[in-house]
Amino acid sequence: MPQPTIASLLDRAPEMTGAEIAASLVPPRQFADATLESYRPDPDFPSQATAVETVRAFAEAMRGGGAGRGLFGRRKGPEVKPGIYLDGGFGVGKTHLLAALWRLAPGRKYFGTFIEYTALVGALGYAQAARLLAGATLVAIDEFELDDPGDTMMMTRLLGELAAGGTRIAATSNTPPNALGEGRFAAVDFLREIQGLADRFEILRIDGLDYRRRELEGHAAVTAEDELAARLGTLGGTVTLDDFDALLRHLSRVHPSRYIRIIDGLAGIGLRGVHTLTDQADALRFVAFVDRLYDEQVRIVSSGTPLDEVFGAEMLAGGYRKKYLRAISRLIALTS
């Protein structure tokens, strides 16, 4: 059996213009065909079925009212708030529902992660980014971040301007499910940060277990180092193989909004010598990278420390706990 051609992620250092970032604001490959009908509510958690019907009503109101009947417009009939926030633990299908809503929205619409919208503002400047998004029927924001006060204030201002022009807003965030001793939901923080827009959002609290763990064992698979190339060869398509530390250094030189281009067209990546991370900046960049791998369903083959142990106990006990738990869930899925 011929050995596969293996490339390196280190050779990929993409640049993206503001127009290219805007054009990429669509649901990721994994959710490109997401519909409300293909969402599978867990019967043990009725809030999931309720969420489907609430999102359906939101979409119907959007199609009936159009962009001009926006966040501050009057409407006839039963009130459906023109902003919606999907709140709950990771793995309960919030991104699926957000992508399904995006598919149902008429007219010009955008779908992206919080970091992609902030990257758009960084590339174009605030005024130009606001002009580009103005008049959209829907702006969908996945994984709304509350960690950086500056970015949060900037996004709040942007959403306020878009809402005043009639654009509907939909957002999600991630909190860990069944986390004892922690606030389960992020809605209180979200509503506080978006300030004047808070009363315009309908909050959907979605209970449930991480669907990625329903049929998976709770550990990331590990491959012996001398078997990495052969294992990558079974994935088909273009694959890469790099040292874990070399990848971390490379990611530090590329803006996270461009990580999607680093993995463009890949079937899988190999990582040699994975170890537990000690630097918070490296860890957060790796989380952003894992998110993009998961969106595009790029498989991971790795040697060394199991990837579900890549974030140490101190990190898991800190302020970014929910990010690391989400990444662990996705790493287990991508290596299984």
TrEMBL record:
The keyword Ligase does not apply. Keywords: ATP-binding, Cell cycle, Cell division, Nucleotide-binding. GO terms for biological process: cell division. Pfam families: AFG1_ATPase. One of its GO terms (cellular component) is cytoplasm. GO terms for molecular function: ATP binding; ATP hydrolysis activity. Gene3D superfamilies: P-loop containing nucleotide triphosphate hydrolases. NCBIfam families: ZapE (NF040713). This is Cell division protein ZapE. It comes from Protaetiibacter larvae. The lineage of its organism: Bacteria, Bacillati, Actinomycetota, Actinomycetes, Micrococcales.
